[in-house]
Amino acid sequence: MNTRHLQAFLVLCEELHFGRAAVRLNVAQPALSQQIRLLEERLKTPLFERKSRPLRLTDAGSYFRIEAQQVIEKLNRAMAGVQEIGLGRKQWFGIGFTRSAMYSVLPPVLQSFVKQHEDVDLKLYELITEAQAEALRDGRIHVGIARHPEKGPEFKEEILLQERLLVALSRQHVLARRRTIDLVRLSNEPFVLYPKDPKAHFVRLIISICAGAGFLPRVAHETYELQTALGLVAAGLGVSLVGASVARQKWNGVIFLPIRGDNGAAVTSLSALYRADDTSPLLASMLKLLRMQSEWEMTRPEAT
Q1: Residue 302's pLDDT band (boundaries 50, 70, 90)?
Q2: For residue 262, what pLDDT is reported?
Q3: Which of 100, 257, 281 minimizes the C-alpha distance to 183?
Q4: pTM (two decimals)
Q5: What angle do helix axes 106-116 and 281-297 make, rounded to 10 degrees?
Q6: Tell me: the pLDDT tens digits for 74-97?
Q7: Three-class SS string for the chain?
Q8: Which pLDDT does position 81 carry in this prediction?
Q9: What's the pLDDT at 304?
C-alpha cells in the first residue's frame, strides 16, 4: 500500500464515479479500478458498493476514508515541515519522557521552552526509560527525561532530581494512620507494580528494596500507567511505592507514608540523558531550563 493508492481512493470517495475520478487523477479508468481492487484485496474487505448508482461507500470504506485522510494530511504536514527545516526557516526538538516527569520538572520547563522558542516544532514522546536510549541513537529525540537511564560513552547524564520513595496506601488501609511505616510490615500485602514492561527498571528497583527488607513483594496487579496503579491502591487492591514528586499531587483515596529507618536505598532519581556529541543551541537551552527547575524542585517539601 502506498500514498498513490490512498489518494486515488480519496478522490473516488469525493466523486463516487470511476470515470470522473480517473479524469481528476489523470489515469485511465481501468487503471484506477485496478488500484482500488488491489487496495480492497490488501484490506480484505470491499470499500465501495459497486452495484449502487452512484457508487456508495461501505461501512468499512467510510471508516477507511477518515483514517486515510488523516494519514495524507499528516504526511503533507511532515513534508512541509521538512522543507521548512531544510531551508533553515524552522527547527524541531524532540523530548522523550517517563510519565512521572510530568509530576515534577517537565511541565514548567516545557512552558518556558515554548515561550523562548516559539518558532521551534516541539515533539513530545512518552517513553519508558528503557526505550529512550534507542530513541536518542535513532535521532528521534534530542533529550530523554528518565529514571536510572542506560549508561554509556555515547551519552551524557545529568541528575535532575533525587527523591525518596514513599509507600502508597488506601486511606482505608489499617496502616494508613501511621506517620511512618516499616517496609517489612508490607510483606504480606498485595503489591501494585508499574510500568508493566519486562525491561522496566523501576519495577526491579521496588523488588530490590523489598528484598533488602527481607521479603519479595507479592505482586497482585501490574499496570502500564501510574494513574491506574494509584487507582487500584485507592480501591484497596494493593500497595505500591512512588516518588515523592508523584505523592505531592492530589490522589483521591490514597495516602503516602515515609519508610521508617530508610538507609538511603529507597531513593529514585530523575535524569536528563542526551547524546555526548550534541552541541546544538536548542539542547543547551533545554538543559539550562532543566537545571534551573531541578534546583527549585529540590527545595520543595516532600508529601507525607
Answers
A1: low
A2: 65
A3: 257
A4: 0.69
A5: 140
A6: 888 778 777 766 766 678 899 999
A7: CCHHHHHHHHHHHHHCCHHHHHHHHCCCHHHHHHHHHHHHHHHCCCCEECCCCCCEECHHHHHHHHHHHHHHHHHHHHHHHHHHHHCCCCEEEEEEECHHHHHCCHHHHHHHHHHHCCCEEEEEEECCHHHHHHHHHHCCCCEEEECCCCCCCCEEEEEEEEEEEEEEEECCCCCCCCCCECHHHHCCCEEEECCCCCCCHHHHHHHHHHHHCCCCCEEEEECCCHHHHHHHHHCCCCEEEEEHHHHCCCCCCEEEECECCCCCCCEEEEEEEEECCCCCHHHHHHHHHHHHHHHHHCCCCCCC
A8: 72
A9: 45
Q: Is 67 helix (H, G, I), strand (E, B) or coil?
A: helix
DSSP state, residue 47: -
CA angle 81, 272, 281 (to 5 degrees): 45
Domains of the chain: 3-86 (1.10.10.10), 91-159+269-297 (3.40.190.10), 162-267 (3.40.190.10)
- Measured between alpha carbons, how far is 245 from 263 in angstroms, rounded to an integer? 20
3-class DSSP state of 115: helix
